[in-house]
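Can you give me the bound-state structure? Components:
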Amino acid sequence: MSVKDHREDHAPDMDDAAPGQETVNEREPVGGLQGYVIGFGFAVLLTAASFAVVMTDLVYGPAVVSALVVLAIGQMGVHLVFFLHLTTGPDNTNNVLALAFGIFVVVLVVLGSIWIMSHLNHAMMPMPGMNRFGS
Amino acid sequence: MSGAAGSSTLPSDISARSGEHDPYRVGRHGGHGHGSTGSGAVGPASRYVTVTYGFWIFLLSDIIMFSAFFAGYAVLSGATAGGPTGRELFELPRVAIQTGLLLTSSFTCGLGSLASHRRDMAWTQIWLLVTGVLGAAFLVLEVQEFAAMIDEGAGPTRSAFLSSFFALVGCHGLHVGLGLLWLGTMMAQLWLKGFRDDILRRLHCFNLFWHALDIVWVAIFSLVYLLGASA
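Here's the bound-state model for the whole set.
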């Protein structure tokens, strides 16, 4: 019971995987040591790109915001696939659906707040000595 | 006579039926390879899958909580009240080092997980220790940064921008600190109790927690520090 009962001793359930579970994705490039090394490499590249966008003049000024957002989303995707082992396979349906709902709420909260508050800002009466939110 | 015969056949009849058909697939035999999603066709999922799924739901809730802090920061980032702006305060070299530390700790955490799959106690403990040291170094840099900002008079009470900045980044730092406590607990439990099923489940949940913290940090360094320094 104690030593023999490890999950590796059971055959992994190919129809149902836990987030982060390595056994199911073992034979794919995202699994095992190879997966962590590839993911680490991608993450380092994307991080370096993010810093380069800000520290150099490679990217047209007004586009810096979009570039940073795109690079951040890309890096989050790398983390999800290579470190958390989320894939689009049928074994991951539950995990991906939960993630989709989470992203939906996050987008709603963040974009909704920015949208509403910018409208309120526009609607506010301009007062002397006030740039945006108080003196 | 007939009643006695019925009662003698009934138990064996039931056991034979449940043994052969297993109508609820509790034994989880068969049912593979039909392309079914979830576990509806093959009986209850293993403890490992359900525990991790529950923790995944917690992590997503945690990320939703962070999104509220992000929304607050995004709305208030211009409300400096005449005080210092992000451009004046943020030191990108420090942020780059912090990012490198946390990203590498996420990587070593994954290596520790692989070592635990091989039931390799020495390497599991080594990688967990490296993860903990990198996480602690990250936290030291963050505390130094906060202390320096408060010394300069740019504490959380200075402006709405700084309140939301300290709330957001401090909340992430608090998570890292709690993660370090959890990491130490897991190292001790692994050491004392070995690769037991429940310990491995906890270790796996810790790995997920640590990777999720790194995902939140990606959003922080891109959208708070880099954006703040470039704007």
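A couple of observations. The mean pLDDT of chain B is 85. The radius of gyration of chain B is 26 Å.
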